[in-house]
Structures are given as C-alpha cells and as structure tokens.
Design goal:
The structure is a single chain. The protein contains 14 helices and 21 strands. With 509 residues, it is α/β, with parallel strands linked by helices. The chain has 3 domains: 184 residues, Class I glutamine amidotransferase (GATase) domain (Rossmann fold), CATH 3.40.50.880; 187 residues, 3-Layer(aba) Sandwich (Rossmann fold); 96 residues, GMP Synthetase, Chain A, domain 3 (2-Layer Sandwich). α7 runs antiparallel to α8 and α13 runs antiparallel to α14. Bound molecules: xanthosine-5'-monophosphate. Keywords: ATP-binding, Glutamine amidotransferase, GMP biosynthesis, Ligase, Nucleotide-binding, Purine biosynthesis.
C-alpha cells in the first residue's frame, strides 16, 4: 500500500472534497466511516476527522476513540472533528451566537506553528458551522483566530493534534491547500509520490499477482471508466482478458462500430455482440422508466452471461467501479435514496458466481482520466460525456421502437457534432437529445405536418449530482434547430431544456 492519510467521515458534505484536495498534493488517502475504522498500519501517516451535520452536544452524535491515533500519528480535526476533540478533552462547545457562516479573515496566525507555516495574516477562510468552540482547556493553545471566532485553530500542547473550525478543502479558503500541505507533508511526513505513473505501475503489478494465469471477463461500454479499467487489466494479463461489447440497440449513431474499432486498435481482446433485437423484444410495449431500466438491465445480464459461458474457465469479472460508488455504498448516511435505479449491471457478479476485480475502485473520476492519459488512451474516449447504461432507452419517452431509435440517433448526432464543431463539447458536462411522446403541427412548404418534438439537453456539472442547464449561444441553438428539422425526417419541432438539477434531473426518465 502507498503511504496514506486516513479521513474519518462524520457525514459532512465536504468529506470527499478533503480527499480530493489531499490527493491533489500527490498523497493517497482513503475515506472511512467513523464507526468502521481500519486497523492502523505503518502506511497510515496521519488522520483527518471530517465535519458533520451533527452537534457534539447531541446524544448519540458520531464519536471516536482518540486513543486509537493520539501519540501514534498526527491528527487534524476539521470543523465538527475539531469540536469533537475539544469537547472530549474538556473544552466547551456551544451553539454559536455570532455569524459563523461564510467568508472570514484570520486576524491572528501563529506562524511558529507548523500547521500555519506560510499562511498569511488576513487570509480568507470559509466557515460553516452552527456550533462553536467557546473555550479550550489549558492543554490547548489557540493558534489562529478571526474577529468573531476566537478558536479558529488550535493545537493540543506537546502533541501532534490540531483542530481548525474553518474548511480548508473549499476554494473559498484561499490558502486551504497550503494548510493541508503543511499537515500531510510537513507534519505527517508524506512523500508526495502518489502519481498516475506510480498508480499504473503498482496497480498492474498487483493485478499480475492477484490474477496470475486466470481468465477475466469484462463488459465494456465505450465509457471512460470501463475502458481505463480494461487497459489496466490488459497490461497485467494480456489476452487472458476477454472483453465483451454489447450492442443493445440504444447506443448513439455508429457508436458500436466506432468504439469496437478503437478497442481493437488498443489491442484488446474484444468481441462485439449484436443483441439489438433481444433488447427491443424485452422493451416491447413498456413505457414506465423503471420497468424499461430493469428490462434493459436484465437483458444485458442475460446476454453477457450467455456470452461469457462461451468462454471456458473464467474466474473473474472485471468492473470499472470508481471510488465515489464505493464511498456511497459505505457512507455514514447510508446509500442515498434511489431516485433512479442507476446501477443496472449490479446483479452480474452474483448471477455469474465470479470473483470481482475493480482496479479503479480507489480513484475519483478526474483521476481516472489522468490515469487514462498516462496509459495513452485516445483523448476522444477520455473526454467523452457520460452516457447512461440504458442509453437512448431512457431518452425516448414512452415505448421504444427501432424507428424511434433511428430518429433520435440522427437528432443526437447532429447536436453532438455541432457541439464539437463549435468548440462547445468540452465546455458542457453532458449533452444529448430526448424524443418526446408528443406530436405537433408544423408547416413545410405548403404542407401541414404533424410530427415529433425533440428536446435538446446540455448541462454543466462537476459530478452529475447537481447540474445547471448550459447557457449555449442562441445562434448555435438556432443553427442546430434548423439543421435537425431540415435533415431528420419525422421531426418538426425542437425545444431546449432550461431546467437545473435539482429540482429536475439530467435525464428526463
Ligand atoms: P440524473 O438523470 O439522475 O443523472 O440526473 C445523473 C447522471 O447519471 C446518468 N444516468 C444513468 N446512468 N444508468 C446509468 O448508467 C442509468 O439508469 C442512468 N440514469 C441516469 C445520467 O446520464 C447522468 O450522467
């Protein structure tokens, strides 16, 4: 294992951000729930206690036994984490009476303290708490203050235990990264050697050892995660990795051929399976989004299962699971409520009785892209917008037919290629078209038409959890609209979706 920082999650919305900031310093870290702490190993160089929506004054609020770490490795409490340490050591934590939300300035900074080295006086920090530390015990020294928060940061005297009530992980804390660097590099002694090259090297070595001469089967989707995962496994075991790419009849125009082709160029041992008819039959007459998702998911599992049975002696199933999925499934708050059943291949390993190998399950999405770049994967694949597993099946509202798929593929293709041509593709997080179950009256030449309506959707986002509709130029939208209506038979009206998430979602179904 690489050197690492342990981040204990008490349920704050910012915990993942702390991890991302630490990793930006080329230091590996892992998030674990406060109540499932891993055994301390020599690789763990320090621990960060995260924030929380709870109050240390509440009965049953998240707690941790500090003796697990204290005097063994350095400890940094952030917000709730800082309040918890203070509370447990005899300090006073109370509901705050003054404003402790938003920007503030550090008007006292103890530059002799290692945590605050190079942190400027008057630097801006971000506060976000309802409780505050009113008094600290004699064993604490206050190392930083703001005009309204006396205990902005403290150190437990003679110990490597620190607390800060502001949030170093958010960009509004202008020197947050420096402070985290002071902690992980200078106080914990991490070497900052966790890089994409190093990740590739150690992952491939581990995969070689784990998989030996075993065969692995993997479903590829053309997306970033499954592609990068496959290339890593391929580097480790070569032809023993058997990839399957299923045409479910719900892909983008020409996507099956193009993606299959680029996989072959990458040297992958891949089989393309045309299962369009199976999917259309399973979807026949279904209009409910969740029923459609389940039908697509089940058909996929059947097709994949059937294909992998044609291979002999397969022991492993490779998957492109990434870190946020892992954190989500063990989160303090529990997995978030299912609004849409996203993970439609979730039933695979159980059905196939295979062991699972997930080489990316410690990486965030942007880190996957960096690793992909290191591996020399085509930037066109790495930069692709996310595309849902059920594909156009959830962008054709109502029932699905081959003809509707054809129409939507044409519309989508015009929209996406126009975005590329206008240099807008990389500025939006995700884009696509939706075929509405609505017909509208139009006029073409002297003829009255009564045809389909399509909606264009483009959003900006960082992780898909929240999103804003992309403010595409009117001129661009005007051109795309007339292109679509002129070129796609069966469509006589184009609308643009101007809803943000929340309260809307990115997909319409
Ligand atoms: P929503 O519509 O929930 O979408 O705002 C958030 C992100 O998830 C994608 N999405 C899916 N991905 N299977 C998938 O693999 C699905 O059933 C599914 N539904 C939505 C969506 O495209 C967006 O990137």
């Amino acid at each position: 294992m690489p050197q690492q920082i342990l981040i204990l999650d008490f349920g704050s919305q910012y915990t993942q951000l702390i991890a991302r900031r630490v990793r930006e310093l080329n230091v590996y870290c892992e998030i674990h729930p406060f109540n499932k702490i891993p055994a301390l190993s020599a690789d763990i160089k320090g621990v960060i206690l995260s924030g929380s929506p709870c109050s240390v004054r509440d009965q049953g609020s998240p707690d941790v036994d500090l003796s697990l770490f204290e005097d063994k490795i350095p400890v940094l409490g952030v917000c709730y984490g800082a309040q918890l340490i203070a509370h447990k050591k005899g300090g006073t934590v109370m509901a705050s009476t003054s404003r402790e939300y938003g920007r503030a300035k550090l008007t006292k900074v103890d530059h002799h303290n290692e945590l605050l080295k190079e942190i400027s006086l008057d630097t801006q920090v971000w506060m976000s708490h309802a409780d505050t530390i009113k008094a600290v015990p004699d064993s604490f020294e206050i190392i930083s203050s703001t005009p309204s928060v006396d205990v902005a940061a403290y150190r437990v005297k003679g110990k490597q235990v620190y607390g800060i009530q502001f949030h170093p992980e958010v960009t509004h804390t202008l020197q947050g990264k420096e402070l985290l660097r002071n902690f992980v590099v200078h106080i914990c002694g991490c070497a900052q050697d966790w890089t994409a090259d190093q990740f590739v090297e150690s992952t491939v070595a581990n995969l070689k050892q784990k998989l030996g001469n075993d065969k692995v089967v993997m479903a590829l989707s053309g997306g970033v995660d499954s592609t990068v995962a496959a290339i890593l496994v391929h580097k480790a075991i070569g032809k023993n990795l058997h990839c399957i790419f299923v045409d479910n009849g719900l892909l983008r125009k020409n996507e099956f051929e193009q993606v299959l082709d680029s996989y072959k160029h990458m040297g992958l041992n891949i089989k393309g399976v045309d299962a369009k008819d199976k999917f259309y039959t399973a979807l026949n007459g279904h209009t409910d989004p969740e029923v459609k998702r389940k039908a697509i998911g089940k058909t996929f599992i059947d097709v994949f299962d059937e294909e992998s049975h044609l291979l002999t002696d397969v022991k492993w199933l490779g998957q492109g699971t990434i870190y946020p999925d892992v954190i989500e499934s063990v989160s303090v708050m529990g997995p978030s409520v299912t609004i849409k059943s996203h993970h439609n291949v979730g039933g695979l390993p159980a059905k196939m009785k295979l062991k699972v190998v997930e080489p990316l399950n410690t990486l965030f999405k942007d880190e996957v892209r960096v690793v992909g770049k290191t591996l020399g994967i085509d930037p066109l694949i790495l930069g692709r917008h996310p595309f849902p597993g059920p594909g156009l099946g959830i962008r054709i509202l109502g029932d699905i037919t081959a003809e509707k798929v054809r129409i939507l593929q044409e519309v989508d293709s015009i929209f996406i290629s126009s975005l590329r041509n206008a240099g807008l593709y990389d500025k939006v997080w995700q884009a696509g078209a939706i075929l509405l179950p609505v017909q509208s009256v139009g006029v073409m030449g002297d003829e009255r038409t009564y045809e389909q309506v399509v909606s264009l959707r483009a959003v900006t986002s960082t992780d898909g959890m929240t999103a804003d509709w992309a403010h595409l130029p009117y001129e661009f939208l005007a051109n795309v609209s007339s292109d679509i209506i002129n070129k796609v038979k069966g469509v006589n009206r184009v609308v643009y979706d101007i809803s943000s998430k929340p309260p809307a979602t990115i997909e319409w179904e």
